[in-house]
């Protein structure tokens, strides 16, 4: 079983509530089959809670109730599965092109009984028109200049992108401003999530999209 510190457990209890056991089972999947199949590096096992699961789960505070969330490049389910566990009110579509990752994600979803998750094996740019999301999430996919083009079109003209980024978030926004505006982004900001829960809070780039000529 993956060890969890007192501070991590307290944060996990606040985020996942009565679904904490599901989160623990997900972490065990990451530490075992996830590592064996190359979705998570073995050196990450001691920090699965702090660096990965909690780091992703805290962005739920930036997502409105009952939203349809598309998670681009889901990989090991970070942040998609974290959100599905923490927020059963959300409808999650996990978009992942690699078959071995899709197979693993489906196994985990089935084992945890997550009925609010759909998995699509495709590239984000090919999912446009197949997904009508309110929110698009991403973590460690690409720089914002490229990520904007992979995420914003999935919103069908209206909604938000919530992308987990690091200390370079503001710099990435500056470089991607023209691309974001061209795609319909009307406001971009850096938001810090989990300050009251995590030793190292999560930094996200939030893009509000309202493309002229589109109706919600």
From TrEMBL:
Subcellular location: Cytoplasm
Record GO terms (molecular function): rRNA (guanine-N7-)-methyltransferase activity
InterPro entries registered for this protein in UniProt: rRNA_ssu_MeTfrase_G (IPR003682), SAM-dependent_MTases_sf (IPR029063)
Gene Ontology CC annotations of this record: cytosol
Keywords attached to this entry: Cytoplasm, Methyltransferase, rRNA processing, S-adenosyl-L-methionine, Transferase
Enzyme Commission number(s): 2.1.1.-
Domain of life: Bacteria
Pfam families the UniProt entry points to: GidB
Binding locations of S-adenosyl-L-methionine: 73, 78, 124-125, 139
Class of the enzyme per the UniProt entry, highest EC level: transferase
Role, per record: Specifically methylates the N7 position of a guanine in 16S rRNA.
UniProt record similarity statement: Belongs to the methyltransferase superfamily. RNA methyltransferase RsmG family.
PANTHER family reported in the protein's UniProt record: S-ADENOSYL-L-METHIONINE-DEPENDENT METHYLTRANSFERASES SUPERFAMILY PROTEIN
Name of the protein this chain belongs to: Ribosomal RNA small subunit methyltransferase G
Species of the source: Paenarthrobacter nitroguajacolicus
């Amino acid at each position: 079983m993956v060890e969890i510190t007192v501070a991590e457990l307290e944060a996990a209890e606040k985020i996942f509530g009565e679904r904490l056991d599901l989160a623990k089972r997900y972490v065990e999947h990451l530490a075992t089959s996830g590592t064996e199949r190359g979705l998570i590096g073995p050196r990450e096992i001691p920090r699965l809670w702090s660096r990965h699961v909690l780091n992703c789960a805290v962005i739920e505070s930036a997502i409105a109730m009952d939203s349809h969330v598309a998670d681009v490049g889901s990989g090991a389910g970070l942040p998609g599965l974290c959100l599905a566990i923490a927020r059963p009110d959300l409808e999650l579509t996990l978009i992942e092109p690699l078959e071995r990752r899709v197979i693993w994600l489906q196994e985990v979803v089935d084992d945890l009984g997550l009925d609010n998750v759909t998995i699509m094996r495709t590239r984000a740019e090919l999912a446009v028109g197949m997904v009508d999301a309110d929110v698009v999430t991403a973590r460690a996919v690409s720089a914002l200049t490229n990520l904007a083009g992979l995420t914003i079109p999935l919103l069908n003209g209206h909604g938000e992108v919530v992308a987990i980024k690091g200390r370079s978030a503001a710099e990435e926004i500056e470089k991607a401003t023209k691309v974001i505006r061209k795609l319909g982004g009307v406001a971009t900001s850096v938001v810090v999530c989990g300050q009251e829960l995590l030793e190292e809070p999560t930094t996200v780039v939030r893009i509000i999209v309202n493309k002229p000529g589109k109706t919600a």
